[in-house]
């Protein structure tokens, strides 16, 4: 359990797709707040980043394949705050249906345009992709896109890479959207990457080096972080 799922745009510096330098970034699991206390250190797991990968065909201009994985230096250990979650796959009879209510969470902007130090959550309905295209057009929505949200219920800036969970399944990660709470938010559809034979990912060590991960079989959810077993 050393792999954290996120959005590719969280891993790049600019529209050209150059991967960020994460030498000073720490991945913290097992908490629902961004502040640190002496008591919380007993429950939190802190890990440094060993490697990170974005989808090889990520396109920041049209928001396609906005998916990435972070590899930490040591395994996370399960606890009462670190529980497993299944990944949505088209091979299972667990399809996400239009109108289905799902849970999105994160530390992004709230109604007052202030970010939160505590994890926020809201239930959002799945929106038909054809309806979503009325707001955003065809160019920016793809088979790997998923829309969800209702008036006043949405993810927002600062929630990127966070989880969209339906009936205990991780079905998407927060990708992008319009004005928060006015139009549906757009998510990267997890089943686009769990159902393929291989997922092409580009490693931070070299922009020309491609690595291939087999399907993401299982996952551990630590609130907004996802630890993935790669078999």
UniProtKB/TrEMBL annotation:
Where would you find the membrane-spanning parts of this chain?
210-230
Q: Which GO terms describe its molecular function?
A: serine-type endopeptidase activity
Stored InterPro entries: Peptidase_S1, Peptidase_S1_PA, Peptidase_S1_PA_chymotrypsin, Trypsin_dom, TRYPSIN_SER
- Please name the SUPFAM superfamilies in this protein's record: Trypsin-like serine proteases
Q: Which SMART domains match?
A: Tryp_SPc (SM00020)
Pfam families listed in its UniProt record:
Trypsin
Sorted keywords for this record are: Disulfide bond, Hydrolase, Membrane, Protease, Serine protease, Transmembrane, Transmembrane helix
**GO BP term, example:** proteolysis
Which intervals hold domain Peptidase S1?
Answer: 1-222
Q: Which family does it belong to?
A: Belongs to the peptidase S1 family. CLIP subfamily.
Name of the protein this chain belongs to = Peptidase S1 domain-containing protein
| Organism whose genome encodes this protein | Euphydryas editha
């Amino acid at each position: 359990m050393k792999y954290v799922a996120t959005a590719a745009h969280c891993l790049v510096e600019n529209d050209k797709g150059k991967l960020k330098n994460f030498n000073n970034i720490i991945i913290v699991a097992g908490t629902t707040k961004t502040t640190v206390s002496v008591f919380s250190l007993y429950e939190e797991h802190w890990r440094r980043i060993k490697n990170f990968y974005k989808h090889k065909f990520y396109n920041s201009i049209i928001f396609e394949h906005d998916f990435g994985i972070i590899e930490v230096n040591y395994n996370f250990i399960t606890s009462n705050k670190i529980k497993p979650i299944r990944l949505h796959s088209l091979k299972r009879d667990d399809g996400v249906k239009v109108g289905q209510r799902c849970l999105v969470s994160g530390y992004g902007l709230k109604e007052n345009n202030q970010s939160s130090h505590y994890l926020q959550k809201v239930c959002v309905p799945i929106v038909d992709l054809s309806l979503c295209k009325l707001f955003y057009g065809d160019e920016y929505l793809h088979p790997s896109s998923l829309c969800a949200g209702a008036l006043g219920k949405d993810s927002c800036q600062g929630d990127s890479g966070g989880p969209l969970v339906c009936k205990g399944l991780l079905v998407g990660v927060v990708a992008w959207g319009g004005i928060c709470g006015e139009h549906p938010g757009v998510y990267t559809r997890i089943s686009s990457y769990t159902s393929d034979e291989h997922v092409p990912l580009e490693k931070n060590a070299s922009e020309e080096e491609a690595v291939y991960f087999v399907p993401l079989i299982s996952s551990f959810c630590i609130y907004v972080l996802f630890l993935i077993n790669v078999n």
